[in-house]
Amino acid sequence: MDKKKLPRFLYGGDYNPEQWPAETWTKDIQIFKQADINSATINVFSWALLEPREGEYDFTKLDQIVDELSAAGFDIVMATSTAAMPAWMFKKYPDVARVDYQGRRHVFGQRHNFCPTSSNYQRLASDLVTQLAKRYGNNSHIVAWHVNNEYGGNCYCDHCAAAFRQWLKDRYQTLDNLNQAWNMNVWSHTINDWDEIVVPNELGDAWGPEGTETIVAGLSIDYLRFQSTAMLDLFRMEKRIIEKYAPMIPVTTNFHSLPNKLVDYQEWAHEQDIISYDSYPAYDMPVYQPAFLYDLMRTLKHQPFMLMESTPAQVNWQPYSPLKRPGQMRATELQAVAHGADTVQFFQLKQALGGSEKFHSAVIAHSGRTDTRAFKEVAQLGHDLKHVGPVIKGSDVHAKVGIVFDWSNFWSFEYVDGITKELQYVPIILDYYRQFYDRNIPTDVISVDDDFSQYDLIVAPVLYMVKLGLGKKIEQYVAAGGHFLTSFMSGMVGPSDNIYPGGYPGPLKDVTGIWVEESDAVVPGHQTKISLDGQEYPGHLICDLIHLEGAQPLAEYANEFYAGTPAVTENKYGRGLAWYVGSRLDHDGLWPVIDRAVAASKIKPLTSQPTKLEITKRVTPGGQELYFVLNMSNDQRELPLKFRGYRDMLTDRVAQPTLEGWDVEILTR
Ligand code: GLA
Ligand code: ZN
After folding, report:
1. Which atom of ligand 1 is nearest to 317's Cα?
2. Which structural domains are found in the chain, ordered by start?
């Protein structure tokens, strides 16, 4: 049986009333109601209160909180409190604490620092969750369970090493297979006994900060896979317990970061009943970056997601944490909705009086007042969402472009030693994402396991690691009429990071109709020039020296000893087309290449009139089209003519032709 859906469009966020006397709660709730807040996420960090000593539970306070919110008609997102361990646990069972990349065992403090394979942590966490699920499993006000908090952070302890060896035995069966997979005859690394395998931290095979340089990338990638799975096992453990007592209520854990490198969210998505995401764009982040992250979150399950956390006015933890400007909060929250969020939730509902986050903004600020700018904006958004939320909730985004994002590829690409130190995965993916964002073309951010046939164009930049079978899958997709675009540093290694011999881009050679003989690193102060359609553009990072084997050149290098050789190519393959971009072009240089791919794939933007407004479309289950038109800037911008006469659902009036800074319209015919 399918689990229940969220009962309504949630507006709320993390609420930690245990930090204040119970007499204050009623007043808090009255204030929330003034802002049309209808939901609270509770119990995220209460383990030490719930279980002050091992096996001694005290739910008095949590019962009161649940009662108070229930009586007020709030929908509760119930967290499990397993992300911050109480002091007694560290004292009694030191192995619950993570050993970090430097090999140091942590002591009591902070949060998110448990060892995923510690049987003490597992036992104590599952005991706690059992108590919670038994007690609150049939509470009808709980609309979702929130497991742990922001998983991520690897452990390098002896337990993890032992569990890793077992994981490797399951994966490779024999040491021969393992040695081959990691190519261990380099530097006398050959393993002759399973017990010789050690974790790849700074004391071992790593030589840079975590996630960067390492001697045996195959080993380090496997360790990341193993840790991601070990943490996922913890999630599963909690989820199974909750399902015993609350089988119909959706269970989720909040994903985070830009995206989080340590957790393979595509693997994890299968286990989530609904995706939830914590969004904290920095003040200087381009606005297409959160859009990309929301598209990624939506695509994980091809379903609406929860915006589980965001800040009402400012965070405290970025190097600089400016206020969101007037109107900016509403626009940034609605941007998530525009890309598929079915909730708007804040961290947090009430500002802490102490602790490291006391200067993190909240719905109720230290002043406790409601006549403030920030509160008025929160209330305005609450009224808006009460009005439009019921129509938006459950509506979908239909994209014909899929941009590939793959965690193993992310890992392997960033472990590469050479040929430039500037290999970063996300910025290159964003180069391509931005092309579609600026054209107002809806995009999914897909995994290599997604069904390609639903897309007219698949864009897979720096697809460095091509897993077994993926080359064929791409060939079949293009042969059948699909359009595929890839770039430098693609098709180079297999699943354990060994090179595909026979020339780059390995399994993508046929479909792209080229081969790459060598790659040049662009050094600081030098400029490689690429000529395309009679214009010259700089090539950054890497320049591939390409031989045509059936493909047509679209652009050529204009200087260096390889001047006149192809830099960008197009190949007809079966009924489809494949493009190869041999260097990192900047936005202007990539523009004509993407123009060509978009035209060939017959993809239509949501408006053909160029605009600096962000426009997305969600379609309700009944087929109603909702256009989100967002002015993600402080400047005035004109509504494209196409939307003249549309109705703005936010105001129930005809669309305004001019959007002031940070204005949003949700338009329907
Ligand atoms: C994260 C955490 C929250 C809180 C916020 C602050 O997202 O999940 O507990 O610390 O950051 O921005
Ligand atoms: Zn460990």
Report:
1. 12
2. 10-84+119-152+249-392 (3.20.20.80), 401-601 (3.40.50.880), 614-668 (2.60.40.1180)
